[in-house]
User: Fold these one by one.
Assistant:
Number 1:
Amino acid sequence: EANGGFIGARYMSATYLRNPDDFVKKYEHFFDETDLRQAQRNLAEFMKRLLVMRFESSKFAFKATLGNIVQSYQNVIKWWDKGFVPILKKGNLLAPDELDLDELLENIERANNGEYDVDKIKKVAVPVPIDMFENKFIIDVKNDLKLLSEIFAEWFEDNDIGDDPKLTKVEAEISKLLKQNEDRKIVIFSSFSDTASWVAAQL
């Protein structure tokens, strides 16, 4: 954002294309450029909301999601250093060193000629040469990563979750209710299963 906030650049690389028409010509078998750009904008907005929801759920959930996003951003920069921007609609983005990049590029050419399954490539990532993107993309990616890394370091020093005020509050409420009636049954609801599991393990 203009105020230096989280943009979500990693999730909407198609909005940084220098020439969308060239992109469509080369990758028409993989994406519809107009739909892709809007879909990526929607994804970036969803990731922003997800971070807030995970933060509101528990420090444990927030740490897990924030850490995954940081790793994903780091992988995008590794791809850029290899000369590509990976486009992946869903799933976890691998670092380029975790797969055979030459084989992937060869399969893209084969897919363009109708000789390879497009869906198999889309499940891994479609690497697009960086010269098709404005340099602002990698600048925004690095700014996002800097911000996210600073938040992670501030909240999780030494990679430790630390005290969670919400968990402390839950423990206090449970203790109060059980003092009133030790046979009382208590149900705790959470929007995320990992938060529920973590809370159960802490109690």
Number 2:
Amino acid sequence: LSKGIFTLIVLTYIFSFLLSRGVKKIKKIVPISHTIITLTIYAGIAGLICLFFMKSIPILANQISNLYDLATSFYQTKDFSNVPLAKELEGYVQNFDVISKVESNISTCSHFVKSISELSVNMAWAFVLSLFYVLEIKQIKHFFALFKKEPFTILYNDLSEMFSRFNCIFSSVMTVQFKIVLFNTLLTITSLIFLGFPHIIS
């Protein structure tokens, strides 16, 4: 439970940090309401995520089905039975404890699916919580500014300075990481297009 809460807090902070900066930059270019920009950005991101899953899941399912059909048809052909290694593989499979291996693989897959589902839920909650933070960022800052008064002045100043330093360091790290990811993504896509791989956009 504590691990899930920590993950949720970290993801919420990352989303809030990135999207609040994005809203500020857009607001400098397009001088319209903060709320309109925020809702437009979040709606656009949510729409792109839904579009991605709607497009990618059928393609992924189709490719897995084609791969299964290809493997099945190959192992059932005479070409496979004529391969010298086929008989050795057949003997190995017969002596192989299939049931225990399948149970182990199912357990691993179920653990993986559980981890992915938990991370997806945390990301969804973090996305929603960051929306409320970005929308009400002025009110939140005004609320914390109340602690400048006594008897919380010293504590507020210390925490404010610590958070300001952390925010500055985190900003630099995130900027570098984003540039690295963007460069690697563009380089990979360009290389795959050059090599003639299909379905690059998907």
